[in-house]
Write a structure and sequence with these properties.
It is built from three helices and seven strands; from the N terminus they run E-E-H-E-E-H-E-E-E-H. It is an alpha+beta fold. The protein has one domain. Strand 5 and strand 6 form a beta hairpin. Helix 1 packs across helix 2.
Length: 141
């Protein structure tokens, strides 16, 4: 039997050490909210990034994770801490066995000011559209 995983590792600068500590306190309620909104079960890991600044949150999967949970947590941090600018991350979908269409990935960019998506891509959808269309698409070799 094959096991499926979604892997990611990203950082979010929340501006101050106090905000980083407060963000860790926000995390459990955000995960409950994400579950109610339909995110997959299984939390991701979040901690203060060990770079020494103390202002960055490091988010990553434990064994697998749901990108929607990360997006919802970042949106909440942006709301609470008044974050601005753009932020994004990418992920990889993996399978423990060779399976057709079992490997893909994606990326998501948020406008932190509005907490709305700017752009996103899921490679499996992109690939299917590119194969069906018969015409050139961005990213074509």
């Amino acid at each position: 039997m094959a096991d499926y995983f979604t892997h990611f590792s990203c950082v979010l600068d929340v501006g101050t050490r106090d905000n980083a500590a407060r963000a860790l306190d926000l995390y459990p309620a955000c995960m409950e909210r994400a579950a109610r909104a339909g995110a997959l079960a299984g939390d991701f890991l979040v901690s203060v990034h060990p770079d020494g600044s103390g202002t960055k949150l490091w988010m990553r999967d434990a064994a697998t994770g749901d990108p929607l949970q990360v997006i919802m947590f970042v949106q909440r941090c942006a709301e609470v801490f008044g974050l601005t600018g753009r932020w994004g991350f990418g992920w990889a979908n993996m399978c423990s066995q060779p399976r057709i269409n079992a490997f893909s990935g994606g990326a998501h960019v948020l406008d932190l000011t509005t907490r709305r998506p700017v752009a996103w891509i899921h490679t499996n959808g992109w690939l299917n559209r590119a194969l069906r269309s018969g015409r050139g698409m961005r990213g074509e070799p």
